[in-house]
DNA sequence: CCTACAGTCGTAAACGTTTACGGAGTGCGT
DNA sequence: ACGCACTCCGTAAACGTTTACGACTGTAGG
């Protein structure tokens, strides 16, 4: 089966009518439409995407750009696959397909994005891992490519994004720990330029000051957000002269390494040191003692991203009237055993 | 910047010449080519992929199909991101782009594949998670779409694939454990139809028989290949009347749950029960005691897949003369502490 | 009987490329 | 002066769709 022309010849109908029948246009006889659909099914005809895209200037494909930097590969922990399901649940309603565009680690993400967009293989883009200043956002805005970002950025004043509620998490974590009697609370921050670090630490600082606890920069541990980073964070914590009684992890995977290093020194998490993590990943779920951490439904997040994207595309806007604005995505604390003690009582 | 026509007008050159200049065709003046390339760079022109694909019937895009079933989402553990890097390292040489095609969990993988292929958004396919009988393989063969599979299958007698050396791993693990004095060795098998389970168990059985140890089907634990599955596997092991002294895990992530359940019953992995895993994932790296497991370089695997695919595409075949055949991918044992004891000596 | 109109369908142009073909110009040998 | 080879470039067709436009029916209303 080659193209629509062969299908039309096989039916003794003009190619225009066949196209209209397949695309559900109104001016075609019911009986004709039935025959066309049946023949298409039988011969396994599917429209050639190149021809269609060329004609109508759209591809019905949405791209999800993911960066395959070494750090992402080690840490992503199915984050993207999880989000993908949610996205697809929304896109399926409009016969849109989702493809993932993995940016090679040796290529500049901005250049990669430009290349993909210029080639017109997608109609719209979802970008993640936004940086504090991120040229991709300016580019997409200027080029008028519909997009939505997973993560805030300072690059443009007004663009569609969803971001996790880092500030809420840091705030909640600090309040919770203080309520449990902690006064000396450490926190980890990413070493990269990702935007989340600033918000996270700022909120932590404000929460402390609200309780008249002085901010101590030696308690902000800058390590990679990975298992190894967690190991190193624990190492640095143990070196502090006045050891903190609690630590907040910006990425819960770090808990795995952190636990390990602590136990090597005979420090028991959940008894000698309270630990709270952020953004639960499947692999941290089995820690012992179980980790208190802030969870997120990747599926729901993906669906929200999808709706917001479509709300920003003229053709689909009408279907998603309320989904235009930005979202700070709330997280829910799953209390575990890793911080279940009061300072001075058990420690 | 719209298309090649605008670029041509801007240069006062015919559109044919511009195209030839950009595509490195021989019959174009050096100076003209230089001007064209400069103008293209300046105006940010990139060829519209739809037009190009339509004309030449190829897209310069390779698709990597991944199934986002629940099990995959929980377990994949960046397996695909790792492989992706290797693939891209090969594809970059030919200006091929890789996209990932996530099959929605509610769609039949075979239908999804057909749809993607019919739409002609990719020139070739990499499929994974091959089943014992897998209609995708017949389809791709018949449709003459170049492809390569990650995983063997019985579906077609001759198609390009790479598969992990399950048999070698099971064999090696059994031999190693027997050398350490073990006689009663349990093994886990997947509950799904994936092909690997059969090979794994078969090889395990043969290795045992080689040492005159009777195959005991109660030692083959069928659970999901996940952390939860590991937990359950341990549970079942503990219920056996004559408890095994060693267990081989088909998926090392299971070790996390397994360890947990064992410790709950006071059974110490690496002292009371030897554990060997398969296909190391980053998240198992931090187990305590460290897990003995068979490693694999995802990058190298991806690169091999890429070469094999190109060797099966007429245009690129010449570049990869030796990469046509199938590969059984060897794995290397990384000895850890989880099986480092002799039966009867320490236990 | 004429007009209007709704329901169908065919025709052809257009989308942005690539490429086969042929033409214009130049240089060279006879 | 002529033919020939070579270099460079323009022309136009083709890829597979979608869709604006108009043509052709049949029917209803006047």
How would you describe the overall organization of this protein?
In chain A, 41% of the residues lie in helices and 16% in strands. In chain A, helix 1 (4-11) packs across helix 2 (15-22), helix 1 packs across helix 3 (30-43) and helix 9 (166-179) packs parallel to helix 10 (196-210). Chain A has 13 helices and 12 strands. The model of chain A has no long low-confidence stretch (mean pLDDT 89). In chain A, strand 8, helix 12 (254-264) and strand 9 form a beta-alpha-beta unit. The first copy, chain A, has 347 residues and is of the alpha/beta class. The longest helix of chain A has 15 residues, at 196-210. Chain A has 3 domains: 4-47, 434 Repressor (Amino-terminal Domain); 61-159 and 298-329, Response regulator (Rossmann fold); 166-296, Rossmann fold (3-Layer(aba) Sandwich), CATH 3.40.50.2300. Chain A has helices spanning 4-11, 15-22, 30-43, 49-56, 70-75, 79-91, 109-118, 135-143, 166-179, 196-210, 227-239, 254-264, 298-311, and strands at 61-67, 97-103, 124-128, 147-150, 161-164, 185-190, 220-223, 246-248, 274-278, 292-295, 327-329, 332-334. The radius of gyration of chain A is 25 Å and the shape is elongated. Chains A and B meet through helix 4, helix 5, helix 6, strand 2 and helix 7 of A and helix 4, helix 5, helix 6, strand 2 and helix 7 of B.
Summarize the helices and strands and which ones pair or pack:
Two copies of one chain form a homodimer.
Chain A: H1 4-11, H2 15-22, H3 30-43, H4 49-56, E1 61-67, H5 70-75, H6 79-91, E2 97-103, H7 109-118, E3 124-128, H8 135-143, E4 147-150, E5 161-164, H9 166-179, E6 185-190, H10 196-210, E7 220-223, H11 227-239, E8 246-248, H12 254-264, E9 274-278, E10 292-295, H13 298-311, E11 327-329, E12 332-334
Parallel strand pairs in A: 1-2, 1-3, 3-4, 4-5, 5-11, 6-7, 6-8, 8-9, 9-10
Antiparallel strand pairs in A: 10-12
Helix pairs in contact in A: 1-2, 1-3, 6-13, 9-10, 11-12
The first copy, chain A, binds a DNA duplex (30 and 30 nucleotides) through residues 2-5, 13-17, 19-20, 23, 25-29, 32, 47-57.
